[in-house]
Design a protein that fits this description.
Layout lengths: L3 H6 L3 H9 L4 H8 L4 E2 H9 L10 H13 L3 E5 L7 E5 L1 H20 L15
């Protein structure tokens, strides 16, 4: 079986996709942005929905995920250059084309995983 390094070196689309979406919050961030632009605090609040009340998201981790999604071209960061700072994140065309993939993953999870497993992606919310 080839190792991960040789798989990504050969240009395997699955390996490239896996690398692009790896991270604890990336799929959930893209899913939350499907309804429009959001500010950092709104994204953070959306990620805490459905999580244990004691769970915290480190600002550094969330910032890293947002930067990675921006670098991959899935989201766009708009800095309004005002004081106090106002920054919004929104899906790019590439990001919008990814939403149906996440919806398919969400639907599959709803059909095949134990109860409660789909709550993190809004499984209990109206689609």
């Amino acid at each position: 079986m080839p190792n991960a390094k040789s798989t990504s070196a050969c240009g395997c689309p699955v390996a490239a996709f896996q690398k692009m979406i790896s991270g604890k919050y990336k799929l959930r961030i893209v899913w939350d942005l499907k309804d429009g632009a959001r500010r950092y605090g709104e994204i953070r609040s959306g990620l805490l929905r459905g999580s244990h009340a004691t769970q915290e998201i480190a600002p550094r981790v969330l910032s890293r995920e947002l930067k990675a999604l921006t670098a991959s071209g899935l989201i766009d960061r708009k800095d309004y250059g005002v004081v106090p700072p106002k920054v919004e994140y929104r899906l790019t065309g590439k990001g919008r084309s990814f939403v149906p993939v996440i919806a398919a993953i969400r639907d599959w999870g709803g059909r095949h995983l134990t109860e409660g497993a789909g709550e993190e992606l809004g499984q209990t919310e109206a689609a």
